[in-house]
Amino acid sequence: MADSTIGVGILGCGPVTQAIHIPTIDRIRDSVQVVNVMDVNAQVAEAIASRVESRWTTSADELIADPAVEIVVVCSPNKFHAAQVIAACRAGKKAVLCEKPLALTEAEAREIAQVSAETGVPVVVGAMHTFDPAWLSARAEWGDLVETAHTIRYSIVLTPNTRSEDFASEIFGRPGARIDARSAVDIAADVMHGSIMGLAIHDLPLVRVFCPDFTDVELLSSQVLDPGGYLVNLRVGAKNVQLYGLNNESWRPEWRFEAVSDDTVMRIDFPPPYVHAGSGVTTFFDGESTRSFGPTGVNGYEREWRYVADLARGEAEPLDVSYLADDLAFAVGIADAATANVRARFGSEVTA
Amino acid sequence: MTDSSTTTDAPIAFGVDRLTVTSPGSGPYGDPLLVLASLPESLHPVSSDADLVGLRGTVGWTRVAQGALDSGARGVVVVAPEPVDRDALVALADRSSAPVVLDSPWVHNPAVSAAAEHFRRLTGPSALVEARVELPLASDLFQAALDQLSLLRAAIGPVVALRYLRLDGRGYDALGTLADGTTVSLAAILTGGLPAAATVRLVRPTEAVEVHLPAPDTATPGQAIVSGPDGAVLQVTKYESAHRAAWRRVRELVLTGGRSDDARGFADDLDLLSAAVRTATP
């Protein structure tokens, strides 16, 4: 490890770590290097450590206590996120990168914000599209669209994650399918909640930017889609919002965010996750002309990691973690409302 | 014989079976019949006593269409049909021995018929159909929904239940179902940012079908794409306006003795939509 590189420790060595973070870290190996990895499965931890030539452990506490670990990456199951982020802050690390979601509840997220403020340890959520050059171009070019947009559409149709993971890496110890003994309504409810907090959550921060009245949310409908996905209609303040996400086996991936006003349509098309396929493309339509930005060769993952490295070196302004907590609260509110509606309407016609 | 297709690919016969066409003057029902210039061997404009009558679908159009049939027209094309009295529609549907083709804005784009077979093959409880239209500001949203229901009927099948989630000055979102239980999401978005267009997409676990339709005024082609585990196929792209396809359809129906279910379907869609609007909240 060169003197100038910053040591990274990763909690959780599942597909996200293997297919996203390790290949991305390798892209900026001049500034960061994995020095320790942790997984509850020792075989997985050892295998991933052998790839990056780092130490490994099955103990999160041990990794966090490792003085060579300056940046902690939290890729563990969601229920551990808050405690591990807080522990990393308390340990005085230089930065913490937490995969989505930051926490399970708003209260947890607020506590993280408080601890981050107390300790001065910057916290970043791995919402890669907020770092994507397409989104940054959009922000620079959208003018008053946040105020004038009346309709927000956020649509994801993706091939199974495993397909993208297998293009991005060679996954060791992929988790097996869950054996389900739950009732149909419980499964439907879990699919809805899990889909919002696992898939929709990627760009809910983008949606929230366009919804200044983000605490005023009315659920208009929520449906679980086969084989796993969601269709959710919302009124957020004065904005009409639709969230749609589905995994299917066809070869027509779509990851699109749209904001529509009376005179402008902004459309951002992102590449599929996991793979390093460059940035998204932002296009503005104004009825007379079309302006387009991107793609560039750098995607959101790489931008995110360069930002985290800059943070750790003290060369970047930290994010407002309270803002990240607001993002989490927005997502949890939608997930909870959509899930409650799925339970309440289970088995009834969609038009009832 | 009843046709279920929206357009055909029958070869154009040169100089044979040319049908004459007229329109009821320059009043509210008069249609300029500009499309006939693109079908000079098949159709020929005359001032009266024509085989076919083309009229605009402004309020009360059923009376004009009925009058044309009573006067001996062998077929009628109604361009951009607006809502009308249901009983008059049903009477037209029941009485007509000659085809009445409703040239609803999106229905006759050749991409619709190219996708229809695939749409119908893939519907079912595991499928979701999304229908979306982008329309100019201040567009009539009842008309927009009626046109969207006509498109769905032509592409996939009739929507049999409908519930508005939102209906306001910016558009609408609604949920519907097809007869086999397929869920349909319908949306209209009003904006000046994009030209008028319609999209229908069906996604199910292993396959997807989508059709993108431009405004019907030009021959800008629609696109139909069918995709599955083996890849995606763009169906043959046809630079034919929806209007022209509608006229080819009525001509073929007349020459083959076919009938059209358009008026009956329009009446059913009108019923469904009227009921949904009554329960809609802004």
Plain-language structure description:
The complex is a heterodimer of chains A (352) and B (282). Helices cover 38% and strands 23% of the residues of chain A. With 352 residues, chain A is an alpha/beta fold. Chain A has 2 domains: 6-129 and 305-319, Rossmann fold (3-Layer(aba) Sandwich), CATH 3.40.50.720; 131-299 and 331-345, Dihydrodipicolinate Reductase, domain 2 (2-Layer Sandwich). In chain A, the strands form 2 sheets. In chain A, strands 8-9-10-7-11-12-13-14 form an 8-stranded mixed β-sheet. A 6-stranded parallel β-sheet of chain A has the order 3-2-1-4-5-6, with helices on both faces. In chain A, helix 1 packs parallel to helix 8, helix 5 runs antiparallel to helix 12 and helix 9 (184-198) runs antiparallel to helix 12. Chain A is globular. The mean pLDDT of chain A is 94. Chain B has 6 helices and 13 strands. By secondary structure, chain B is α/β, with parallel strands linked by helices. The model of chain B has no long low-confidence stretch (mean pLDDT 92). Chain B folds into 2 domains: 19-106 and 243-271, Rossmann fold; 110-238, Dihydrodipicolinate Reductase, domain 2 (2-Layer Sandwich). In chain B, 53% of the residues are buried. In chain B, strands 7-8-9-6-10-11-12-13 form an 8-stranded mixed β-sheet, covered by helices on one side. Classes of the chains: A alpha/beta (352), B alpha/beta (282). At the A-B interface, strand 8, strand 9 and strand 10 of A face strand 6, strand 7, strand 8, strand 9 and strand 12 of B. Chain A: This is Oxidoreductase. Chain A: GO terms for molecular function: nucleotide binding; oxidoreductase activity. Chain A: InterPro entries: Gfo/Idh/MocA-like_OxRdtase_N, Gfo/Idh/MocA_oxidrdct_glycsds, NAD(P)-bd_dom_sf. Chain A: It comes from Amnibacterium flavum. Chain A: Keywords: Oxidoreductase.
